[in-house]
Amino acid sequence: MGKLVVLGIQHCFVMFGATTLVPILTGIPVSVALFTAGLGTLIFHFITGGKVPVFLGSSFAFIAPIIAVTSYHADSANPLAYATGGLLLAGLVYMLMSFVVKKIGVEKVGKVFTPVVTGSMIMLIGLMLAPVAIDMASSNWMLAIVALVTAIIVKMYTKGFISMLPVLAGIGVGYLVGIITGNVSVEFSGVLAMPEFFLPKFSLFAISAIVPAAIAPCIEHFGDIYAISNVVDKPFYKEPGMHKTLLGDGIATSIAGLLGGPANTTYSENTGALAFTGVYNPMVMRIAAICAIVMSFVPAVGAVVSSIPLGVIGGISILLFGMIAAVGAKTWVTHKVDFSAKNIIIVAVMMVLGLGGANIQMGNFSLQGLGLAAVVGIILQYIWRKA
Q1: Given 196, 303, 353, 370, which residue has the most CB atoms within 10 angstroms?
Q2: pLDDT, tens digit, for every residue of 278-313?
């Protein structure tokens, strides 16, 4: 259990930056985001039988709609309440998708999400995050290189339990060097504090702006679960089933909205850490979830974690996001994908749409990035079959 706790803390460090960035950009209290991420992860594990090593963090897909809603309701007492009301209802879209997947069966889902499509989706998850890693690393390349090299050395040249802690080691050494070079500043703000929960409100504008935006992350959810399945080498899309993972994600998102937090989503950062460390025990993610909840009540802990230099996180992210992209290539190899002209076209179009940031806007509905690439890939695949 002691080793599992350390591994859980490692995953907590991995998710912290992205999970807190969403509330910082939208105005949602960081403490609430940490609490709902931890609670949402525990709910997901309960619904899926504790079988899938997933951490649910703050979703980036709803940032633009949340900002639009808060701007529209700027004159109200709490504009964010209308946004979180929309998020509460957005979770119902996941639940509806869960029902559809269960109804049509996982076999038919598998015919849609073939290895050529899922491999491309998994690779895109990693490659689309690459600019984020480089942007963070470029804030201090020295610290980024120290963290990256330390993580690689620990993974490649140590044995036993220590070899399972490359991320924690990279962050620790990078943080220490940051202190020595004067790149770390910690501001403490009290010992204990209750997260600033607030109840949601509802408006037609908020619902129309936020609920349709849930369709894209629902599609991305398929890619996330296939990625985790390929990393762990277990078909989680069959057992516990894609319908249960969607249901868990949806309920977690609705409860987050009920408490005033951002929508939840499966975190690619933690999937990358799974691939790199080789530790697949779902208990590790549940411990990370408990750590997130504890941090939401202890500002001092959050202050220390948030003081980790961006360069350090960037160096580690280069490795983690690259691991996800590599898993996508591994999917093609494992399933012996035939790169005929038709499959090459599918991969080529998906890559450009995803990496190019293509965006189709129809009213308040937006399909972009990974979601758009997946839909187009599936359509091309269908056309080839009918041809």
Answers
A1: 370
A2: 899 999 999 999 999 999 998 877 777 778 888 998
